[in-house]
Design brief:
The protein is α+β, with helices and mostly antiparallel strands. The protein contains five helices and six strands. The mean pLDDT is 89.
Length: 124
């Protein structure tokens, strides 16, 4: 199956346009940790920065992306437990574009959201 790559709107990053529908569906469905973090960072609530949710970058869909700081935030739940190689490959791909990838544990978002927000304030 051939996928068409184009640059993201207003971005130098590639985008597999075939993933856009899936990204939209993921935004609508969401999961608890993503929804909780989104409430804390949407509408420029984190340091005045604009974040996209379920952003397509190449052949990947990242949880959150801030173009101003070129930062990807990934929430890692139990589905990541057995995807070490996949996550490593994805991170290396994203870093090849000069992006910083920040991983946050799902459990931390659910049990220590204030601590997660402090961490993000200090590291973004």
């Amino acid at each position: 199956m051939k996928t068409e790559m184009q640059n993201n709107k207003n971005s130098d990053l590639p985008c597999n346009i075939e993933l856009k529908k899936l990204a939209s569906e993921l935004r609508k469905a969401g999961n608890l940790s993503e929804a909780l973090l989104w409430l804390q960072i949407k509408n420029r609530k984190l340091k005045g920065l604009c974040f996209d949710r379920q952003k397509v970058i190449g052949n990947y869909i990242v949880d959150f992306y801030c173009a101003d700081k070129r930062v990807v935030i990934e929430i890692d739940g139990t589905t990541h437990d057995y995807k070490y190689e996949y996550d490593k490959e994805r991170d290396e791909y994203l870093k090849s574009f000069g992006l910083k990838v920040v991983h946050i544990l799902d459990i931390d978002v659910k049990q220590n959201l204030a601590g997660v927000m402090q961490f993000l304030e200090e590291n973004i």
